[in-house]
Fold each of these.
Amino acid sequence: MSGRGRAVAAVLLAATVTLGVVGAPGTVAAAGPGAGQQARAWLPQPTGPYPVGTTSLQLTDDRRDDPWKPGQHRKLMISLWYPTTRAATGDDRAPYMVPAAADHFGSAGSVGQSDYRFEPGRTDWAGIRTHARADAPALPGGKRPVVLYSAGFGDPRTWGTGLVEDLASRGYVVVTVDHTYEASEVAFPDGDLATSVFPALLAQPGLDMSALLRRMLQSRVDDTRSVLDRLDGLRHDERLPAGLAASLDLDRIGMVGHSGGGSAALQTMHDDPRLKAGVNLDGQLHFSNPDGSGVQLPLPTAAEDGLTRPFLLMGTQDPESGSYHRQPGWDALWRHSTGWHADVTLTGSRHGSYTDAQSLLPQLARQGAISGTDLTGAVGDVPPDRAVLATRSYVASFFDRWLRGHDDHLLDGPSPRFPEMVYER
C-alpha cells in the first residue's frame, strides 16, 4: 500500500512444501499480457484432506440501524466455507468475486485499488476462481468447529479466501463477514452494490480520525455479534445446502481477522464469551492522537482489561507492526491477559502478507499490473509460498489446539520448520 490508501491503513493499524503460489497450473510467464488482455491469477491449493464447498447469504438485523447509513437496517453479506463430498473442477469452482464486486474492486479509485495500487482495469478479478463448489452438500460426519473471518480496512470478505479455504479443507466451517459501507464494495443478491463511505469521510475537513476509527471498531464488533446471534437460527435455515446446518458446532467458535478484523476479533472476544479463541493478523490495539503522535487513551477495553481465553498475535515487519513490545495496545493486552497467548512475527513481511495479496499480487506484478515498488510495499520480500504456508500452518495449529484439542506443538516455541517466524511468549 502507498499514497492515501497506505496512510489510511497505517492510521488504522495504529487504531486498532510449496503451496502453488508460484508455478500453479496456469501461472503466467514473466512477460505481461498482450494488448487487450487482462492479467490473471490463481489462488494456492488448500492443503487439507477435504474438498471445499461454499454458500453465501444476506443477513438483515432489524434491531440495529446501519452505523454508516442512518435510517436503514444493517445488512450484511456472509459466506460459509465447509467440507463437502466432491471436489470442484473447472467452471464448477465458485468465483472469487461476483462480477459487480469484481468490476468495482478493480476500478480506479476504489478502496481496494487505492490501497494496493494495482493498475485499474488491468486484472480479471471476475475470472479468478476459488477451489470450492458453490452450494454443495456438507460432508457428513457430525458437528464441526466454527471460525469467523473478518477482513482488514477496505478489504472485502473475499480477500482472505486462501486462508479460509485451507481451514475448511482441514474440517472447519468458516464464516466470512463483509462489513458493509466499510469494505471497498459489497454486492447483494438484489443487485445493490454498497460501496465504501470512507473516501468521502476521510475528505471531510477537521475529521477526528481517532473517533472515526473507534466507531469503526465498534461497528465491526456489533457486526460480528450480530452474526453470532444468527448462527443458531442458521441451523434451521432452509437456504443452507444439505447437511450444513447440522454441522455447526456453536460450542466451539473461534475468530481470525486481519488488520481491523484482527482488532475486532480480540475486542469481540473481550465482549462476547461465545468466542473461545482468536487470532489477530497484524491488527493493532491503540489509537493515535489527532496529530498522529503518541497514544490516545483509553485503549480498547480488550487491551485495558486483557483476555482470559487463548489468543495468537501474528505481526509483520511493517513499520507500524512487529513484536508486541513495540506496540502499546498489544503490550497492554499482553500484560493484562491471563489466557494462553503467543506472538509471532514473519520476517520480510508487510501488512498484506497475511491476506490474498501475498499470493495474487506477485502474479499480477509478473504481468505488469502492479509495480515492483507497490508490490514490495504491500507484501514485502518474503517468498510468497513460505508466507502462505506459515500463515496457514500457525492459524490451523492454533485452532486445532484450542477448538479441537489436537496439539502439533508448533506453538510451543521457535520452530525449525519456520525459521522466518520470530516467536515470543
Amino acid sequence: MKSISTLLCLTLCICLFSNCVNSSSQKTPAITEGDSLNVGKNTVAPAKAPVTGADQVSEYLDYLKGKKIGILVNQTSIIGKTPIVDSLVALGVNVVMIFGPEHGFRGTASNGDKVSDSVDPKTGIPAISLYGKQKKPSKEQMAGIDLMIFDIQDVGARFYTYINTLGHVMEACAETNKEMLILDRPNPNGFLVDGPILEDHLRSGIGMYKIPVSHGLTIAEFAQMINGEGWLPNKMQCKLKIIKVANYDHQTPYTLPIMPSPNLNTQQSVMLYPHICMFEGTIISQGRGTYMPFTILGAPLLKGKYDFVFKPKSIKGMSESPLHINQECYGLDLRKYDIAKLEKAGKLNLAWIMDMYKAYPDKARFFDMSQSKQMGNFDKLAGTENLKKQIIAGVSEEEIRKSWEPGLGNYKDMRKKYLIYP
C-alpha cells in the first residue's frame, strides 16, 4: 500500500507541474520597469512564449530517478513559481547537494560578498558556496553525486559571473567523469553580439573567456562553446545533456520572471546591463545605492552638465557602501529609455560613456580607480586596454568599432557552430 500511495503522490505532483508548465506558455510573471521587482503581478505573454528547460519537467524527471543529484542554482531557478530544489524534492528526486554562485543560493548577498557554506533550512540539504575561496565542487563533493544539474538565469554579458561558474563546474564534472544536465533558459540579450574580444593578459574574475562584452548565447550554447573550443584545462570535455528552451530564438523577447541579482532588479536594468556595466570602471555611479541600479548614471561633478539628480544611500543586500554615498549625483535617467532602439541597432551603446567623459570636468580622474574601492578596473571590464585610451584620445565611435576587428567577426563565425536556436 505504501508504494501505491507513493506512486499516486508522485503522479499527482507530475500532473500539477505539467499544468504549471502548460500555463507558463500563457502567462509569465514579469519584472516591472519601476524602481523594484513587483513579484505580485503577471503580464500576459504571447501564446507561444518561451518555455524554459526547467519547466519541461516531463522531459527530464525520469532521467533523474535513482541518481544522487547535485544542483547549481540560485533564486532564478524555478519551475513555474516554485524554487526548483523544492520542486524536485517534492517529486521524489534525491537532491543531495546544492551549489550556489555569486549572491548565494537564495540570491540575497550583495555584489562581491563572500557567501559561506550552510544547510538549506527548508530541505536540510547542504548548500555549498562557489563564490569565494572555492570556485568549483571538490573531488570529494563530486564523489557524492551521480549527476550535476545547472539551472541559472544568465543575462548574456561577459562580466556577469555565472558563465565563469559554469566553466568551473564543467571542469569539476570533466575531472570526475560526471555528466552535467543543463536546463536551459533564454538569454534576454540574445540578439546582441558586440564588443571587444577579451585580451589574454586581462583575464580575471569578471572575464575568463575570449569573447566579446555581449556574447549572444544561452547557457547551454555557451557550455557547448567551452567544450568545442577546448577552454577547459588540458582540453578536457564535460559530458552534457541539454533540455532546450521551447518556442525560442535569439530574437525572441523574454521578460525575466525573477530578478537575476540584487542590482539587476528590473527588466530595464537587465537590458541596459551590457551597455552600462563598463561604467563600473569609472567615477560615474550606475545607481548602486538606489532602487534604480543600472538604469541611471551620474556623479557629483556633473552638476550643471545634466539636470537629472539622485543620491546613493546604503541599502542592505544591494549596496552597503556605494560610490558617491550620500552625495547628489547628476547625470542620465535611462529608466524609460526605449530598449527597442538598442535591439534595432544591435550594438553596444558607446555614446553614453563617450559623452559623459567629455562632460566630466576632471578627466584625469574619470578612470582613476584609486579614488574608491567601489570603482573597478575599466580595462578588465572592457577586456582591452585600447578602449580607455581611445575614449581619452577622442577617437570616433566608428574607429573604435573598427579596432574590434577581426576579433569580433571571427567570434561571430565561431559562435555559429554552437547555436542551438536560430
Amino acid sequence: MTLVAPPESAGRIRVDTLIRLRWLAIAGQTAALLIIAFGLSFPLPIAWCVTAVAASVWLNIGLRLRYPVTHRLAEREATLLLAFDMLQLTALLYLTGGLENPFSILFLAPVMISAVSLSVTRTVALVVLMVACATFLGFFQRPLPWYPGIVLQLPYLYKIGVWIALVLGAVFITIYAFRVAEEARRLSDALTATELVLAREQHLTQLDGLAAAAAHELGTPLATITLVVKEMRKQLSADATIAEDLDLLTTELQRCRTILGKLTSLGDEPAQHWDVLSLPQLLEETLEPSRDFGVELKSEIQGEGTPPNCRRNPGLLYGLGNLVENAVDFAKVEVRIKANWTKDQVGITIEDDGPGFSADVLTKIGDPYITTRGGHDERRAKSEPGSGLGLGLFIAKTLLERTGATISMGNAVAPNAGARISIRWSREDFERGTMSDGPVHAD
C-alpha cells in the first residue's frame, strides 16, 4: 500500500496563532504596568517598560501586514519569533526585579509553544536561550518595584531557587509537551493513512453504483433507437440491402441492452453470490496473496454446524490480509491460521514461528509508528517506506474493530515461539458485516 505523506506545512504553526498569543501577552503586560505604576504607585521605569511593550506591538502589526492569516511559518521563522518574545520578556523582567518578579514564570510559555509545534532541536535551542536569560537576570536587574522609600531585597538563595524551578520546569514541559504532541501527530498521520485506504476501497465500491446509473440513463435512448429501427423496417422492407443493415443494428441494440442489464444488476442486486463469503472462503481469499513468499501457510477450520457467512467487506479483507502479511514477513518457516465458530462466536487466530513481539512494546501493540518485532529477516514489506513502524497493524486493527471484532495480540506460550493474534466476533456481528442490516447467507 502506498501512503500519501501529509504536507510539509501540516506541522507548522500559523502566524495568526503567534500574533493572537502575543496580543494576549501585550494586554497582560500593559495591565500589570498600569496597576503597578498607577494603582499601587510603585516607582517604575515606565518609559523603558512601555518601549519594550511597544516593540511587541510593532512586531505584531508588521507580521499582520506582511503575512496572510492562513500563512504557516517555517521552523526558523517561528523560532526567531519565540526567541524575540523571550528576549522582550527578559527586558521587562530586568526593569522590574529580574527573577524576584513572580512573572518570571512566563519564561515557560515560549518553551511550551515550541515543544508542541517545533522540532526537538529548535526547542532545545530555545530552552538554552531561556536558561541564559534566567542566568543573566540572576546577576543583573533593577530593583523590584515596591513601596517608595523601601527597598525589597529577597535572599540570594531565593533567586537560585527560582532559577532551578524555571530550568526544571522548562525541561519537564519540553519533554511532556513534545511527547504528547508527537503522539498526536503520529495518531493523526495514521488516521489519515486509514482514511486513504477506506476512501480507495469506497471508490471501488461506488463503481457499481455509477455503472447502474449509467445503465439507467442509457436505457431510454436505446429504447428510442429500437423503436425507430422497427418503424424503418416496416417502411423499407422491400430493400434487401437496407434490411440487412437493420438486422445488424437490431442485433447490436440487443447486445447493448444485455450489457446494460448486467450493469444495472450490480447496483440493484446487493446480495449476489460474489458479495457473500463463507468463513472458509474468507480465509482462502485472505491467504491467497501471501502464498508465494517462501513461508508455508497452514490453515485449520473447525466449528459447530454450518460455517457462518459474511458480506464482502473491503475493510475486513484488508485488515485480515495485513495481519497475515505481517506474520509471513516475520515467520521463519510457517504461519498457522485457525478459524473456528460456535452458534454465538466466530474466531480467527494467526500464529507464526518468528521472533514474536518485543517485550517492551507488548503494551503498545496496535498504536501507530512503533517498532513491533524483534530481529527478523528481510522480506517483502520490510523494504517499503515506513515498514516496521506499526502503522500496518494500527490500520488493520482499526478496520477490523469497525466490523465489531475484538483483537488481542501477544506471543505464543512456551515452548512455542512467535507472535499470536486472535480476532473474535459475535456471530451476529460477523454475519451482519458493516454494510448489511442483518445476517446474510450464501445461495
